[in-house]
Amino acid sequence: MADVEQQGRKQSEEFTDESEEEDSEDEPKLKYERLSNGVTEILQKDAASCMTVHDKFLALGTHFGKVFLLDIQGNVTQKFEISSVKINQISLDESGEHVGICSEDGKVQVFGLYTREGFHENFDCPIKVVALHPQFSRSNYKQFVTGGNKLLLYERNWLNRWKMSVLHEGEGSITNIQWRSNLIAWANNVGVKIYDIGTKQRITNVLRDNVSLRPDMYPCSLCWKDNCTLIVGWGTSIKICVVKERNPTEMRDLPSRYVEIVSAFETEFFISGLAPLADQLVTLYFVKENSDHMDEEFRARPRLDIIQPLPESCEEISSDALTVRNFQDNECRDYRLEHSEGESLFYIISPKDIVVAKERDQDDHIDWLLEKKKYEEALMAAEISFKNIKRHDVQKIGMGYINHLVEKGDYDAAARKCQKVLGKNMELWENEVYRFKTIGQLKAISQYLPRGDLRLRPAIYEMILHEFLKTDYEGFATLIREWPGELYNNMAIVQAVNDHLKRDPANRTLLTTLAELYTYDQRYDRALEIYLRLRHKDVYQLIHKHDLFSSIEDKIILLMDFDKEKAVDMLLDNEDKISTDRVVEELADRPELLHVYLHKLFKRDHHKGQKYHEKQIVLYAEYDRPNLLPFLRDSTHCPLEKALEVCQQRNFVEETVFLLSRMGNCRRALQMIMEELEDVDKAIEFAKEQDDAELWEDLISYSIDKPPFITGLLNNIGTHVDPILLIHRIKEGMEIPNLRDSLVKILQDYNLQILLREGCKKILVADSLSLLQKMHRTQMRGVRVDEENICESCHAAILPSDMAKPFSVVVFHCRHMFHKECLPSSGTVPGVQFCNICSAKKRGPRSGILELKK
């Protein structure tokens, strides 16, 4: 079968490659192959005159009066000697069990292929056509028609005899008959008629357009598309006729059906045959002799076109000029087009050749794409239709695409396609890698090599790494980062990198890559040394990931020199692995680094490094004075005498003032502020913090002869000290800057205090009144008393079981309830009773609010 397909493809190329003069970029719609085997031998000695197609077999008639039954491949299965002259027509019923044959000498035979019983008759004129009823095999449809000078209908009656009736005559020779369902269409010299065998009515007459053409030279082509649609081709004219039911109200004496021509148009060439293809038409053309734009040789070649009919024109979909045997000797009447409805096969019959056209399948589409070097589209088509393709293999197409890209020099695209095409075929992968090595393009394929579940031999990966190591350090580093270490022999690559480092020992790329290789090989200490040497950002990640804290105890200074913040954070986060004492010991010779560490430790926990607080005083004083005062304020373990000594040595006034005040020597601290800082605002602020009258007195005494200080005091002490005390002590005639503004401010502050007091008083009175009213409303509400309430004294139900008897109940505002007889006698205030429970809890007296009596 494969040989037949291959032969068919070669024949298709033979028909089209040498014949077509159209745009080669347009993919053909049909493919062609010559019907060979027994047909070849028949046509060498004889010539084809007609052929009929059934889904199961073919029936071929010849000029020497023979009929051959052929299989689909053209092998002869049966042979009938019918006449000595040309067979004009062969007709088969739908079942393929009966055949009708007519010949030029007037012979007509209708018989079963499995029995020779049937109809045999000789007429005195040539019989051009014969047509069996489509259901001829069924007993009640034993009918057929013949066409010569008359259209004759033969029917078998109940006596098993044939009854003849004339359906039409008088319009010349009948050249074509097509029978579909109950409709018989035939063509004569005048036009095309349709006869309804069911109603026994002729329902239409479609006239011939070009009467100048000889009907015997340019015969009419008829084809039923379905049970109601007839396609008529005659000369250069095509008409599509639809048989429709007539409205019963319009019938009168008219047939029950009528024909509507839905499409009519002219073509460029003469029509030799028609066949439907979905909603399109397949047309066999005989090229006109007066086509000036064609040379003499090409002019006589038949054309098979696919067209899309429109109401008044058509659109050409595809067109193929065919080279059939002896085409130069053929006329329009020598060609016929037959089709097999079941498989969309189209047979082009000529005297010396029979060509089969069929729709191109996905394999043919891929063939065409590959021929045009459209490998991308071919591969995509094969992947989409991989279940339907028979002759092609997706991987082979992909390999062809890769070869094509390599030939073009597009190595990156070729390598990228390897990932998709080669899949999990290790042998193909390795072959491609070696091919890329041969052409010097290992780099191109490196990033696409498999690295997951499918892996090549380690030697393959090592070969590529060595190639990169020779020419591209950055590319080598990228592969080491991207490739899992299991792909190659790690030790071999480490040795190769070390060899290159001997020639270039300071190369950062190689050193970083070597560290990564050591990391994968779990030689973390070696990797850590390289990272620290390079000051690489990944050093901290390496330490954390592989718990290398024991390896960095003697490398703390290196880590902090690289990045103090990250190093300190790491050390503090892992105090359980590297103790604070160990870090302090390592940093003893680098006090600036020690300060950074202890400062962050203090920020995290004020008590954790308390034994180093004394040392921190000096470190803060030396390296970070801005944080010294906050440290002194927050630390509860700092020796104040040592801190005071350090601050006094360095003349840190603010820190000394704080320490003196914390040690209780506030007067000395205030004196330093006034004498050394000469900052009245700070002095006033200090006095406010201490809130000591003696300090205010000292401040006033020190400031009384200093006008700027007096101004500061007048502006700020109004809310802490009576300004009159200061004003009375100001000397007569002393000039004080901004005195008026200061006095105005004192008066404004006093006025503001008065307003605040009055405002607060109003708010207090309003709130008290509101709460009193709320309490009054609450106490005035009724209290529900029912059988669930109990007496707080005797704990019996507050209401008697017999409500008819008189009773008396007392309810207090606190919601406690008593039987009147259970309450003790009135207290010191006559006529006023109090809740015993609330009085006992010292919540204040609660007078009775309600007395129920009955």
From TrEMBL:
The keyword Membrane applies. Residues 1-30 are annotated as: Disordered. One of its GO terms (cellular component) is late endosome membrane. Keywords: Autophagy, Cytoplasm, Cytoplasmic vesicle, Endosome, Golgi apparatus, Lysosome, Membrane, Metal-binding, Protein transport, Transport, Zinc, Zinc-finger. It is found in: Cytoplasm, Cytosol; Early endosome membrane; Endosome membrane; Late endosome membrane. One of its GO terms (molecular function) is zinc ion binding. SUPFAM superfamilies: TPR-like (SSF48452), WD40 repeat-like (SSF50978). Residues 1-13 have a biased composition (Basic and acidic residues). CHCR repeats lie at residues 568-712. This is Vacuolar protein sorting-associated protein 41 homolog. It comes from Gasterosteus aculeatus aculeatus.
